[in-house]
């Protein structure tokens, strides 16, 4: 959570703005030399007119490299300010996965309008990519890669690499496909370099290739890339036809998204960490959860209501309601956090339910015992009420043990039932633990009162 | 949080175990063809004797590739079962960053013992790497890379690549350094491939290289690699001397760790998501937080105690303590989750404090109003108490608004003060919001009672 993202400082950005306004030729000379991400940081701070001036200076082909860094809303705005010819030349050069990301949410008419103006190859590629479901491997792969036949010799492939202009971004492998476009293997550029020009690809290619299928979920693709240290994984159809590749930089973005989703699930704030959405839209997403939880909260009111008699005779009991509730909620959420992360990273699958549950329950009993003894001491010191001290202390031990079990099991049940895992989020587990905790607390108090 | 990590199924693992025990030669033939990660998955399920049998079959040089996948505890155990000669040959072949990770936590004596048996080059590299602080770029970089002088021609570098045996893993760039080892630029293998054999590196190298300094924090390195889509970033000293490289696969592991840490901070469960640690150690890490929070929880008891008179006259008020508390806690945690993630991903830095705070407060007021109206209706329906309905409803509006502000501002203050951000974790914000929420609730109740 430390604040360390290296970004251009505002002075540098201001310098470029001034340069653009005062001395266009100096800007035209220096700006193109920047990394596309730096160009993006400068451009996003510019007003509409300044951005327009940049379109005059940067070719649409070069702008394609910058375009991909913008959020989709920003892309739409920029696109709106471009002239028709500029737009199409830029889209033509943009990698297919980035084009898909941009045009996929558009209406059918707008999409067709854009596709109809594309080159035949690009249109064919785009029509293919648009078929795949969101979040599938097909939806994030790109069609730009270099391939060769098993019989091609190294010199031929090198010539092909020289002529290729579509794989704008770094190429690290040549994919070897047979005449049916079936993937045979891949050749790392290093092996291509040290091979003899007359050697055939089939002699030097690595055939134990890890692939992903086009309908695989993007999170699974991320795990495979991670497990096998792959820089660009080939995407194949069910019958092993090479359809595209997914590069590690796209996967990094997906991993970040996944971590943010995990956190959203934990706090029922899913989909609202994007600072670009308005308070009203954020409230609309969060309010249903808060209100649903409030409905559940009415159960806590009923539990307390059921023990009204006990409470009326000892109002002091109500003082410790928050303390017991918080301890149960905190302990349950800790177990939940462990589950959410270990399920995501695959650690859970390695250890299995029983070992995980044993670890968490063991932890809960120990934390409960330590907390119970502490609170007994504290209440004796501050309130001098032996009876109250034991009610709270024993409640803590029991409640905390139960809370770890609920925090561990509930997310597993929910993930097995294939329910939206947001339901397993922290607040639900907290509320459930509250209900159980209050019940334990008042039951013990009532029992001890009757003795 | 979906369960999708692709792993070898237990049947495959069982097949290899049987093969090893019944027909060693079949195992020796098939096992080496697996990916090192698959070999790891099979080996970790083996018992000590079976692992010992594998040492006979797999050369230490090949085993180095598998070794890196194990956790450090598992590595120590495996290492303990290897013979001295096997150990040293394996370490000699293990990439320097992996060797550092393995020997860094050892005592001085054990470290020196291992270093003294290494080759001169490896020992020099290791002594250098061990100087750098944990979590710095220096501590995760590797010394295995291919470099050339600006005057070297392409053919010479290709020869160098052919002879090189240290960069076991994929090489994607050749780093160009001058006679003082200062980094001049880099050449992508693709450019090397399409260049003429007689061209000099300085003619084809890219000089606008993004580097990281050796003392930079690893999280910052991760952000740079992400922002600039770099596959292997050069690590340089303060005076631009090339010291090593950090590859994207190491960065992915760090990103995953960072996300897990974020979640730990959110739930005060930091350092306990590792399922390999025992319940006792997990309890020891978590109990202090739970108990500290319980100490704070005593304040909630005092707040309620301060309003004892009000509570004695209307015991019904205590029924809604959990509901008000939970709503405040949940809303505050949602804002916190937004902050923790947007600070980590750099989104917060883009938008700044006021816009973020405005968004969250706006959301809080709207969620508060919606919740307030809902609870007023529910209490009127279920309890027919107009007075109680308004106390709870107005409390919710005020408490939820305050909760978003606290959830937003507290993590920023704490990150500015450079306090351990675990202190900003969800439970603390929840407890703080509880105290404020209870105070608001009982103040409104007392005021309305007196009218």
From TrEMBL, chains A, B:
It is found in: Cell membrane; Membrane. It comes from the Bacteria. The chain crosses the membrane at residues 289-307, 361-383, 389-414, 426-449. It holds the Pfam family CBS. The keyword Ubl conjugation does not apply. Homodimer. PANTHER family: MAGNESIUM TRANSPORTER MGTE (PTHR43773:SF1). This is Magnesium transporter MgtE. It comes from Salinicoccus bachuensis. The lineage of its organism: Bacteria, Bacillati, Bacillota, Bacilli, Bacillales. The gene is mgtE.
